Amino acid sequence: MQCSPLPSLKLGLKARCHLVAIVWYSLVPFSVLAGGNSTSGHESKGSAPASIPLFHLANKPGQKGFGVFIEAKIGTPPERAQYVTLLLDSGSSSMAVIGPRAAGLPGPLPPCTLSSFHTRTGRSSCGLGGYTARDSPSHVRWPLPGSQYCPIAVNDTTRVPFCAMSVNYGDGSGFTGMMVNDTLTIGGYSQTAPVNAIYWMHGPFQEPPSAGIIGVAGADLNCARWGDPKTCFPGAMEQLLMSQGLKNRLGLCLGRPPLPTGSDHNRIDYGQPGLMSLGGTDTALTAGRVYYSKILQGTKYFALRLQGVGVNEQHASVPTAAFASGMIVDTGSTQLYLPYGAWTAISAAGAKIRCHQDSDCRLSIQVQGACLKLVDFVKCHPQHRVCSALEQRGLAYGQPMLGFAGMKDLYLELDLSDHQVGFATRSNKACNAKCSSFLTKITCSFAKGCAWEGSSAVEECPLAGASRAAAQLQPSASILDDGAR
Predict the structure, then answer these.
(1) CA 366 distance to own-chain centroid
(2) Contacts (Cβ under 8 Å, ≥6 apart) of 39
(3) Most-buried pick from 110, 426, 433, 457 (CB within 10 A)?
(4) Residues forming a β-bridge with 337
(5) Using CA atoms, how far apart are residues 456 and 266, in angstroms rounded to an integer?
(6) Which alpha helices (DSSP H) does 180-277 contain, by range?
(7) Is 360 helix (H, G, I), strand (E, B) or coil?
(8) Closest among 250, 257, 331, 277 to 88, alpha carbons compared
(9) Are 287 and 427 in contact (CB under 8 A)?
(10) pTM
């Protein structure tokens, strides 16, 4: 191991995995269309990019924020735009949204109410928003049947043919949707973008309460023919960033659900909304430098070179070949996954380390350019008082993956402009979104210091505002370095 000593990062574990997408469908390159608003872009270095709230998913009792979703609107004119919520997924590039006519398991969920949304049972059985192309006057069916980019021509009840695409994800879920172009609005920015209006889904596709998914990986995943770069084009998020002159970078202050604080046991314990900065890192939310790790050449995902694992810098004997595919950074996956056999090797390394409590045992992960030391993945054995990771053997997967549980305390930058991923320590500034950025009364209810009046969110009275300002997250310790000694 080349990791230099670092303070610990406390991580939680989640039960369900939303794995990297495997996609088969027909798409066509098209140029960025003119339009959208005239809001100027922001550079990622040294200035504050435009930011929108991130909200935690929690669809099972006891799960606290195992992923994030964003709010958006689809369609024009504004009074006809449809409100949607989208799971943020760095392991895919497509955007797809469920509508009330969607069929298949688990099926569309009933709308959330303010009271039900804050209960475990209510939030796990309701959805926020949805999209139906036929209800949007601004949608255009694209591509058209007969095109080489349309693998399946389908006739709907009006006997108007359209092109359909199917996506299958690594967790066994997937969908089929009608391919259209429509106006996507996120954070005040608008741009025509590809949307898949889902009419059939299978497996656990919907992650309540979100009504769909937006992939933020590169254009290599949007291809008419898998592996043929001539048939690839940017997904919806990349189209939006390009249209505003922004770098293809997203800064993610993911927030972190806090431990219970005596609230009613029937309420979900959630953190304050995080922030996604369009165009790059908001340096006010980071402490110290951002450590960058280059994306592996030839990969379609945010895959980084994994150079080693261990316990408290003690190297674990894992064959180099197990790291050949790198480690994928996937916001749509819940867990930290390591290669088969890695956890046994980590336990063998940990058996040489004496401990008194769990925090004495830290999992070391080194990717090129950055080194992390994580607690809670390696435990202090209560009888033998040595570090052990045997209980994590279920978190083995052929493809190493850094999921939400391994990144939620970090500041993360997904940078396709320079083909890298950045990691930084969070500053002591809370990831508070502007009250005006919340689109519904339900999502506004997450934020301290914001109140819903009429049809928009506003700042509360000064006393409440002071409470919001005081709700600062405790600064994380310096958890990263470049791995050099």
Answers:
(1) 22
(2) 50, 188, 189, 244
(3) 433
(4) 401
(5) 28
(6) 236-243
(7) helix
(8) 331
(9) yes
(10) 0.83
Residue 388 C-beta-side C-alpha neighbours within 13 Å: 10
**Sorting pLDDT into bands at 50, 70 and 90, what band is 114?**
confident
The first and second tokens of residue 276, run together, are 């996604």
| Residue among 234, 252, 215 nearest 22 (CA) | 215
Tokens of 416: 């396709």
Q: How far is CA 203 from CA 93, 168, 169, 174, in A?
A: 19, 10, 10, 7
Tell me: the pLDDT tens digits for 35-57? 333 333 333 334 456 899 998 77
288: left (phi over 0), alpha (psi -120 to 50) or beta: left
Upper half-sphere CA count for residue 127 (Cβ side, 13 Å): 24
For residue 99, the model assigns a pLDDT of 84
Please calculate the CA angle 202-207-212 and round it to the nearest 5 degrees: 75
| String of DSSP letters for 368-437 | TTEEEEEESSSEE-TTT-BEE-GGGTTSB-SS-EE-GGGTTTSEEEEETTTTEEEEEEE-SS--PPPGGG
| 324: number of Cβ within 10 Å | 12
Scan for tokens 């819903």, then name that residue.
452
How many Cα atoms sit within 13 Å of 253 on the Cβ side?
A: 32
Beta bridge partners of 146: none
Q: What phi-psi label fits residue 115: left (phi over 0), alpha (psi between -120 and 50 degrees) or beta?
A: alpha
Structure tokens at 440: 């519904």
Which amino acid is present at 294? K
Task: Give backbone dihedrals phi and psi of 283, rounded to 5 degrees, phi first.
Answer: -65, -15
Beta-carbon neighbour count of residue 462 at 10 Å?
A: 9
Q: Token pair 């990791």 is at which residue?
A: 3
Q: Which candidate, 241, 253, 239, 235, places its Cα nearest to that of 278?
A: 241
Contact 367, 293 (CB under 8 A): yes
Q: What is the pLDDT of residue 60?
A: 54
For the chain, give the longest Cα–Cα distance: 71
Residues 332 and 87: beta-carbon distance below 8 Å: yes
How confident is the model over 269-280, as pLDDT tens digits? 445 678 999 999
Distance (Å, whole) CA 3 – CA 269: 34
- Residues whose CB is less than 8 angstroms from the CB of residue 410 and which lie 6 or more positions away in sequence, other chains included: 9, 254, 423, 424, 425, 426, 476, 479, 480
Considering only CA atoms, which of 103, 106, 72, 104 is closest in space to residue 207?
A: 106
